[in-house]
């Protein structure tokens, strides 16, 4: 007899066990420890036990689902009208018994009772209240193609694609960065400076990245840090992926160039300078993402030597 219930304080070891045996693919942290799960997800100020539902058989967890809410556009808090199913895991030997379907139904019910009028499945930027740094790499990117069971499962439950996100990586020890006269000119007048946190840190940034090892890099006029920013990006450590990827990696997230300064090489200059600096830090791999529809971001990453290695899909409930 399967019992469905909300999270209890004694559950993290069972949740970690299910995660580690769930066959979630290259984008999921390997050997997830309960204390890391607690740090990234359970200790968040917006965590609600009712949104983390477990399926239990004979006092042993056989599956779980975790639902939350998207961020407001200004990242000042949660947007309760948009619910997100962030993770759904059923142990392999308990699949095809209706457990996953019932977990999704209960998660949808929780979100709708809290005010959600739209429900998406697969966390992605802006709709990633949990699992940042644990699934997808530097940021969640929907349910990944390398997680083969996820997409067919949600499609059977009436979810349809909402957006595609491409996962890129670059080997730091690969070919040297390209040299262009435009980049030389940028380096003569601008410099890259680091900041422990964004100068305009939002609630949403703190909730997603504040518990992780991060550093923001800004491209600013030489000798005038903070006077004007031509490009910025967050660099985050991906130590939790060493066991899965067998190399030291960092991620680039939130790359931003002001609209008036786009197509002038500033974003490329910032990313290439960071790549060059990381060569001396024994970093082997850089992870970065771009929405498939964002041709500018994709072009920038590819011009900096990044190659696509995976992709993920956000789904939305068709009749929600």
Report on this structure.
There is one protein chain. This protein has 320 residues and is of the alpha+beta class. It has two domains: 168 residues, Gcn5-related N-acetyltransferase (GNAT) (Aminopeptidase); 143 residues, Gcn5-related N-acetyltransferase (GNAT) (Aminopeptidase), CATH 3.40.630.30. 26% of the residues lie in helices and 32% in strands. The chain contains nine helices and 13 strands. The radius of gyration is 20 Å and the shape is elongated.
Rounded Rg = 20 Å
The secondary-structure class comes to: alpha+beta
Question: Runs with pLDDT <50, length 5+?
Answer: none
Determine the strand fraction and express it as a percent band.
25-35%
CATH superfamily of the largest domain: Gcn5-related N-acetyltransferase (GNAT)
Mean pLDDT: 92
Shape: elongated
What count of helical segments does DSSP give? Answer: 9
Provide tags for this entry:
9 helices, 320 residues, Aminopeptidase, 13-stranded mixed beta sheet, elongated
SSE map:
Elements: E1 2-6, H1 12-20, H2 34-42, E2 52-57, E3 60-71, E4 78-90, H3 99-113, E5 118-121, E6 143-144, H4 150-156, E7 159-171, H5 181-189, E8 190-195, H6 203-209, E9 214-221, E10 231-237, H7 242-245, E11 249-256, H8 266-278, E12 285-291, H9 295-303, E13 307-317
Parallel strand pairs: 4-5, 11-12
Antiparallel strand pairs: 1-2, 2-3, 3-4, 5-13, 6-13, 7-12, 7-13, 8-9, 9-10, 10-11
Helix pairs in contact: 1-2
